[in-house]
Write a structure and sequence with these properties.
Layout lengths: L2 H36 L7 H9 L9 H11 L2 H6 L2 H4 L7 H23 L7 H12 L6 E7 L5 E9 L9 H11 L3 E7 L9 H17 L2 E9 L2 E4 L7
Parallel strand pairs: 3-4
Antiparallel strand pairs: 1-2, 1-3, 4-5
Helix pairs in contact: 2-3, 6-7, 8-9
């Protein structure tokens, strides 16, 4: 057999192997899609959910290793979907298109959760509020302070981003929080911030600032319903702990 024939034969084998691999990949994707469409909420494991989302950016090939690498790097599905695109692209195999696909799902989840909060009185749909805050803040890498301003029926008027940084009087001024309530016509408010460490237990500064804001609110007829601290390990309500 000539060298040309050897090369031709090798090329044919590689082509057949490639076609077989593509067919197997297409079959796996079809099976995953069928399970997704016909199954319930738990039809797919977390890595399989990511596999399917990655199909949007990776048209051919096996996305399972990338999906598992993402989970290993970030720790959970929710952390992956909350991650910054630049951080996502640090994982080998994730490019702009894949990062955009993952980010879009995270945005959709936050907007769905927010719509559940906006549509009902907050105090009457407390779990919806906690779900929204967990999706939106639990995996942030910086400490963020927000104030949810409510009307007389405890419906959300304004979700105000106060700033990023440790919660103390240098970052959040009681008078300014209450003044904002007067400006937007709020009757009540809920303080919210996250702990990037993951542990939502309140610090002394958390408790002191909350009590000062509550006192300032009482003087002007604005009720501080609660201060909710969110972390990867869960959430804490200062009112439930008897600290407000």
């Amino acid at each position: 057999m000539t060298q040309t024939e050897d090369m031709f034969g090798e090329g044919t084998a590689q082509s057949e192997k490639s076609d077989t691999s593509k067919h197997a990949g297409a079959g796996h994707r079809a099976r995953l899609r069928e399970r997704l469409l016909k199954g319930g909420a738990e039809a797919l494991a977390d890595y399989e959910v990511l596999e399917y989302l990655l199909f949007a950016g990776i048209r051919q090939g096996d996305t399972k290793p990338i999906a598992k690498a993402l989970l290993k790097h970030f720790g959970s599905l929710s952390a992956v979907l909350s991650a910054d695109p630049a951080a996502l692209k640090q994982v080998k195999g994730v490019g702009d298109t894949s990062a955009a696909a993952l980010k879009s799902v995270g945005i959709a989840a936050r907007r769905m959760a927010r719509s559940e909060v906006s549509a009902k009185p907050v105090l009457g749909s407390w779990q919806n509020l906690i779900d929204y805050l967990a999706i939106d803040m639990a995996h942030l890498t910086v400490e963020r302070v927000r104030v949810l301003y409510l009307d007389a029926k405890n419906r959300l008027i304004d979700d105000h981003h106060v700033g990023d940084g440790s919660i103390d009087e240098a970052a959040i001024h009681p008078r300014e929080v209450i003044r904002k309530a007067m400006d937007v016509g709020a009757s009540a408010l809920i303080l919210v911030h996250n702990h990037p460490s993951g542990n939502p237990e309140p610090s002394r500064a958390d408790i002191q600032v909350t009590q000062k804001i509550a006192e300032a609110g009482r003087l002007l007829g604005v009720t501080v319903h609660d201060h909710v601290i969110v972390g990867r390990e869960g959430h804490v309500s200062l009112r439930a702990k008897g600290l407000l």
